[in-house]
Design goal:
The complex is a heterodimer of chains A (40) and B (495). Chain A is 88% helix and 0% strand. Chain A is mostly helical. Chain A is rod-shaped. With 495 residues, chain B is mainly alpha-helical. Helix content of chain B is 77%, strand content 0%. In chain B, helix 3 crosses helix 8 (156-205), helix 13 (305-313) packs antiparallel against helix 14 and helix 16 (387-413) packs antiparallel against helix 17 (419-438). Chain B starts with a helix and ends in a 12-residue tail after the last helix. Classes of the chains: A mainly alpha (40), B mainly alpha (495). At the A-B interface, helix 1 and helix 2 of A face helix 5, helix 9 and helix 12 of B.
Chain lengths: 40, 495
């Protein structure tokens, strides 16, 4: 398989790993927005 | 089609239909319940419905055939598509969920009305939804009709009508909850079915044998980029952009954030949707590649790639379930679009623009009637596609994604973004896209590139040349900025 295929595959895996690593920050952003919305 | 296959197909559809009706029993007689499931939908359920609406005809029929034709390089489209889903959830998900709840927005035009402070953003965004979603709806009916004709004793015409009637019944009576639960089941079925199909293909060709088989079947086309779609070519960039914006800004995806219960639930959905999308996009690309290795003659009829793979590789019983799930996935795209259109006509045009005074119960009845009318119109379009349909179909995906992607990012991150700027996006993007497409995409540039190049500068210029939004809008949409203090995160366990 061409090298471009493997590079894309690694990038795809990186997006997935980033989603797992950033899910904590994702939650914090949501909570932050919720708190701002309710005025707490 | 033998009796067993017919039975599997019918039982599958009846089961999906029953789930829709059962889920819809919890729908109360209010528009918020009918359109958004009382904003109580869990994140993981939202993730599954997202997958089902996304991985429908476009992915399983369109992408497998393109992957089969383009070869291994098609995987780059999947990467940018996945990136778009990541960005839309990460950037828009939490904020849109909270803001829609805060301003009481039930529909996208509701949100535009609250953020851009006026009836014209509501009306114009409603018109864009109507003009560009109806062709998408008709295209899905068209694809479903072809599939039903191939797999069942029904003719194309009767297949489309039966299919349309089923979707109408559970959307009209079950509302958003019915859409969500049927979509979730179909998303799971598709993910399982496509994975089984890939596993069988890998077993047939051998795990390490794909590259060799591809080169053998087409020595010139698989070891280099196919002619005309090299990386950096205008066609390739515009194709990537169409998919990127189509995934990022699709209104029937963004509206799902309006209904999610809370931030914690949305986080579970984020992890699930990214896992499913990242894996499923690769599964779809690989199915196309294995199809090329196993059935090189498919280049004559690329659109049947997924169907031939399922029919040839899977046992009859399993292939019937997979193909029934494929038809059902088209159903899930149709039901999502249908509900967005019904809410736009009833909520935004009738009730809030023309001030037709109705009780909550009457509004839900009107929404059901609207679902019927739009459903029938789209079926008639699909049976006798007028010239206008073809004229609108190609730009529909790109225009919707570009317009609503820009509008939502600006609306929730850019306090200075005002009504004239938003109206500029809603006018310049569709007009430049369609005009350039009709001119035949001259100068080596494609519609979506030109639309982006025209829209962003126009949006910036008009926004900065006109007064900022009123203070109360800023206060409502950017409360921490307005008070001068960022909102603090006290706990990660907020409910």
């Amino acid at each position: 398989m061409p090298i471009g295929f493997w590079i894309a595959l690694v990038l795809q895996a990186s997006i997935l790993i980033a989603a797992f690593l950033m899910s904590g920050r994702f939650l914090a952003r949501g909570v932050e927005d919720e708190q701002a919305g309710t005025g707490r | 089609m033998n009796g067993t296959v017919a039975t599997v197909f019918i039982v599958y559809f009846v089961a999906v239909f029953a789930v829709g009706l059962l889920a819809g029993r919890r729908t109360k007689g209010t528009t918020e319940s009918f359109y958004l499931g009382d904003r109580g939908i869990s994140g993981p359920l939202t993730a599954l419905t997202y997958l089902a609406s996304m991985v429908s005809a476009g992915a399983l029929i369109g992408w497998t055939s393109l992957s089969m034709l383009w070869g291994p390089f098609f995987i780059w489209v999947a990467v940018f598509f996945t990136l778009a889903i990541f960005l839309t959830w990460y950037l828009l998900g939490p904020r849109v969920m909270v803001l829609a709840k805060r301003v009481g927005a039930v529909t996208i035009p509701d949100f535009m009305h609250a953020r851009f402070d006026g009836k014209s953003p509501r009306l114009l965004s409603s018109l864009i939804l109507l003009v560009f979603l109806v062709p998408l709806l008709a295209a899905n009916y068209f694809a479903a009709g072809l599939l039903i004709e191939r797999l069942t004793p029904f003719s194309y015409t009767s297949g489309v009508w039966v299919f349309g009637a089923l979707v109408f019944l559970y959307v009209a009576f079950g509302g958003f909850r019915a859409v969500v639960w049927t979509d979730a089941i179909q998303g799971l079925m598709l993910a399982i079915g496509a994975s089984i199909l890939l596993a069988v293909a890998v077993y047939e060709v051998g795990f390490g044998g794909l590259g060799g088989s591809l080169s053998e079947s087409n020595p010139t086309g698989m070891v280099s980029w196919p002619t005309g779609i090299e990386p950096g070519s205008s066609y390739f960039i515009s194709f990537i952009m169409l998919n990127f914006f189509g995934a990022f800004g699709a209104p029937y995806f963004i509206v799902r954030f309006f209904s999610v219960r809370n931030a914690r639930s949305l986080r579970s959905g984020f992890v699930l949707v990214m896992s499913l999308v990242a894996i499923m996009e690769i599964v779809v690309v690989l199915i196309g590649l294995y199809a090329r290795a196993l059935f090189p003659q498919l280049t004559e009829d690329p659109d049947s790639t997924f169907l031939v793979m399922a029919e040839e590789l899977l046992p009859l019983f399993v292939s019937t379930i997979v193909l029934a799930a494929l038809a059902a996935a088209m159903m899930s795209t149709i039901d999502s679009i249908l509900l967005v259109l019904a809410s736009t006509v009833e909520n935004d045009i009738m009730t809030k623009t023309f001030n037709v005074s109705l009780s909550n119960h009457q509004r839900v009845l009107v929404a059901r009637g609207t679902t019927l009318v739009i459903g029938v119109l789209s079926i008639i379009y699909a049976l006798n596609p007028p010239e206008l349909l073809a004229f609108l179909l190609y730009p529909a995906f790109g225009v919707l994604g570009l317009v609503f992607g820009l509008l939502f990012v600006g609306a929730v991150y850019w306090p200075r973004f005002n009504k004239p700027g938003a109206l500029t996006v809603m006018i310049v993007a569709p007009v430049s896209f369609i005009v350039w497409n009709q001119l035949g995409n001259p100068l080596g540039l494609y519609h979506i590139q030109v639309a982006l190049l025209c829209t962003v500068p126009a949006m910036l210029a008009v926004t900065y040349l006109t007064p900022p939004p009123p203070a109360r809008v800023i206060e409502q949409f950017f409360p921490s900025r307005h008070s001068g203090e960022p909102a603090r995160v006290e706990s990660t366990d907020a409910q």
